[in-house]
């Protein structure tokens, strides 16, 4: 592995490029511990893909009924024009698989088919990101893409996890819960009735 032999002399950026190349050669990549130079990843149209166990996504823990399962993910870098015709660097994040959320009405598990496919436009600073989002005079920007600050060592796990969180339903609910429910929002047994019983 000649590439590895020289890797110690490379910058972190160089190492990441080699990791990304190896990833493609092997076709699968561990998401944890995988960092990309996001500008470089986009500029050189790099691709990485793999699978991640749901239990490795710590920020999802609060919304999950259980952390079973595996998700497929991929990252693609590209240079493409934005709505104003300016060439920009992008990272496309695709994630799919099934998550077991908790229904907010009956608290039972709820299978959710995750289908993330989002393009993030790289900007050079937080200030530029805020400027892009606050410029309400410009409709193209107001309706514009999600912005992300470019980093030399962007955690691929963070990228994927963030996009998953954004794709989750605001309130996870079965269309029809298995348990008897009242449309007026009252519990099947009034808590006051239960209290009254306790008094006897
Ligand atoms: Zn339910």
Question: Could you explain how this protein is built, in words?
Answer:
The protein has 200 residues and is of the alpha+beta class. Helix content is 30%, strand content 30%. The protein is built from 7 helices and 8 strands; from the N terminus they run H-H-E-H-E-E-E-E-E-H-H-E-E-H-H. Strands 2, 3, 4, 5, 6 and 7 form a 6-stranded mixed beta sheet that branches. The longest helix has 15 residues, at 12-26. It is globular, with a radius of gyration of 22 Å. Mean pLDDT is 80; it is low at 1-10 and 20-26. Bound molecules: zinc ion (ZN). Zinc ion (ZN) is lined by residues 103, 105-106, 108, 173-174, 177.
* Residue fraction in strands: 25-35%
Provide a count of the helices: 7
The largest sheet, given as strand count, sense and whether it forms a barrel, is:
6 strands, mixed
Task: Kindly provide the radius of gyration, computed on alpha-carbon positions and rounded to a whole number of angstroms.
Answer: 22 Å
Given helix and strand content, the structural type is alpha+beta
Q: Which hetero ligands occur in this complex?
A: zinc ion
Shape: globular
User: How far is the N terminus from the C terminus?
Assistant: 79 Å
How many domain regions? 1
The helix/strand series, from N terminus to C terminus, equals HHEHEEEEEHHEEHH
Helix content: 25-40%
Low-confidence runs: 1-10, 20-26
Short description:
The protein has 7 helices and 8 strands; from the N terminus they run H-H-E-H-E-E-E-E-E-H-H-E-E-H-H.
